[in-house]
Amino acid sequence: MKQLKQKPTVLSMFCGCGGLDLGFHQNGYDVVWANDINEDACLTYEQNLGTVVRGNIEDLEMPNIEDLDVLLSGFPCQSFSNAGNRKGINEKRGNLYKFTLKYIKELRPKVVVMENVRGLLSTKTESGYLLPEICESLSSLNYEVHFNLINASHYGVPQNRLRVLVVAINKDAQIGNFHFPEPIRDTELTLEKTIFDIPEDTPNQDEILRLNPQAIYLGSFVPEGGSWKDIPTEVLPDRLKRIRDNMEKYRWPNFYRRFRRDEVAGTITAAFKPENAGVWHPVENRVFTAREIARIQSFPDDFIFCGRSVKANYEMIGNAVPPKLSYVFAKSIKEILKGENLPQREPVRYFSQIKYGTTPIKVGGPEIIFDKNVQNEEHVEYEQLDLLSVIGE
Length: 393
Description:
By secondary structure, the chain is α/β, with parallel strands linked by helices. It has helices at residues 19-26, 39-48, 97-107, 130-140, 191-195, 213-219, 238-245, 290-296, 310-319, 323-337; strands at residues 9-13, 30-36, 53-54, 70-73, 111-117, 143-151, 162-170, 349-350, 368-369. A nine-stranded mixed sheet has the order 3-2-1-4-5-7-6-9-8, sandwiched between helices. The longest helix has 15 residues, at 323-337. The radius of gyration is 21 Å and the shape is globular.
């Protein structure tokens, strides 16, 4: 077993309020450099975790960190998200992943962890798909790249939250072999067990997003476990009446979803729209409080959100990586940094074995290991890509 430094070092790009970092912090890592551009998120990070470098990553000088253990990157996801604008790489934010590659190239961390929305799987570029191009760039830097679509609820988070996780291992570092950790089972994740016992004086529990009167009125018709299907047609606004009259055209939406207390919550998003997401309290005529969505995101109650508005707190919580999800991966990565090999819990898939873009990547399926010199269904080769050169040497 290798001698592990007392506190493995972490650099965190696009850290937000610190959900991803918190899981590593709880495992004894030292976050030596973190950055975000959002002032509200930075205030919260400083309150709970430590120093953060404010500013646009494009304008910052890269820190000089030797022997970096882990680089974390939750590069902005709105450009790839189904809940966002889906402009992908055609939007400026959709190109910030290139700075992650630049930092990796210069700092050569032993392990890289990237987290993003499911839409990253289907984001296209001029030559193919973005995720394989990122994997090829990492592979060209001599990283072994693992990725998969996971549900955060499989790792102890009381929320059905689908995300793409990429873990890249520096082959030159001579550390242990990585595999995605075993899901956590037999954990009670229902809303009743998650949010029904919060003391009134818990920080951020008194913060609740103000809704327009019409939204509150419509939500009052929805019983526990119901949705807009329970709202009488005659009280619906004309816009929703048109949708109800032609459900197939609008892809069978399910507005004003109110989960039952014995269900697992749906995805908490930064937008937090009471019409489009299941954010209504199971039994009270209101949406979740800021602390309740923090609980659903698996933040501990002593993690205080310091945004300058209630809306800012909702947004940063929705944007965060659930700390319990981060904790599981941080623990596994600590083992391989010691030189231990993680068990392979099921047969893996190699990228060359799937028709990327045609074969669905399903939650709970085997992890995928990227292998070089492969082709997708359109016979686009992902070899000798120029992603690294576009941001300079």
